[in-house]
Design goal:
Layout lengths: L10 E2 L1 H9 L1 H10 L10 H10 L4 H21 L7 H21 L1 H6 L8 H4 L8 H19 L2 H7 L4 E3 L5 E6 L2 E6 L2 E5 L4 E8 L7 H16 L7 E7 L4 E5 L3 H19 L2 E3 L4 E2 L11 H5 L4 H4 L5
Parallel strand pairs: 1-4, 6-7
Antiparallel strand pairs: 2-5, 3-4, 5-6, 7-8, 9-10
Helix pairs in contact: 1-2, 4-5, 4-8, 5-8, 10-11
Length: about 325
Amino acid sequence: MFEIRKYPELSWSLSRHKTMLTCSRKYAYDYYLSHNGWLSNADSLARQTYRLKKITNLEMHFGSVVHDLIYQIIQRVLSNKEIPDEEAVVDEIRHHLNRSFIESTKKEHLWQHRPKHYTMLHEIYYSQTNTLPEGKIQKITDRLSTTVKNFFASQSFADVLNKQDMRFMESEKFRYMMVDGVKIFVVMDLLYRDLQNDKWVIVDWKTGKSSDEDRNQLALYALYLQQKHHIESLEDIVIRNEYLLDGTHVDHQLTEHDLVNVQRLYGISMEQMKTFLSDPQHNAPLPLDHFPMQEDPRVCARCNYQELCFPSTP
């Protein structure tokens, strides 16, 4: 049963860690001040913070739409239902993007009251022009057909179509493992057993470019699998990045060193997170002025919380 807590549960993820390193003020807004902001009787600051937290940008929204549709296509394959062709998927993505533009420009009043159910694009909210930058529109347009084409041609989708040699686990599900009483969240795009080669395969669809952080993410996946399914050898786990922009994939074979590194990162990160707490037992944060603001204006320009940090901003 859903329980209303005065303070949120302390948990850890790579995205939370990255937010803390990028800007501790944003970290406070994301993980503390927005808590309970979805409740009708929440105070105005919590509601405002929660609303701003839900703002997205064009690139992030595009990636989210693509991930959702890939999930739906894979579910249709596994249920022996007809799958759409490339053109239909491109049209569907374009439809979602157009709807997000309409919601951002013409339905702000609905988003204000139900920010979880409507889209607000950062480019619209903070420009107040009801237009998107031409460069961004062109970038997404260029990525659209390429991304869909490369998904249908990908190794992982070929594996999905070859169902008899695969056993599929749940995808796009929030999973977590417990470490020292703290939930560490892991979200895997696709997880299956390759029965022919006796391997566990984790797939991560990438609609952007590769990142130095990818390997820590992969190591977390491997740690989760080892803990959840009691897998003794890392050699039984294959982790694949599918780069949909250039149509390539990379299979990673992790080492114990990778796992040690991500566990060390977690330990250091968690200690730093606890310095922001006034009451660690209840995960109660220190006052907001103990969370310093970012000083790089380029970072602030991309942030959802400009309205709170710089009140004169429209």
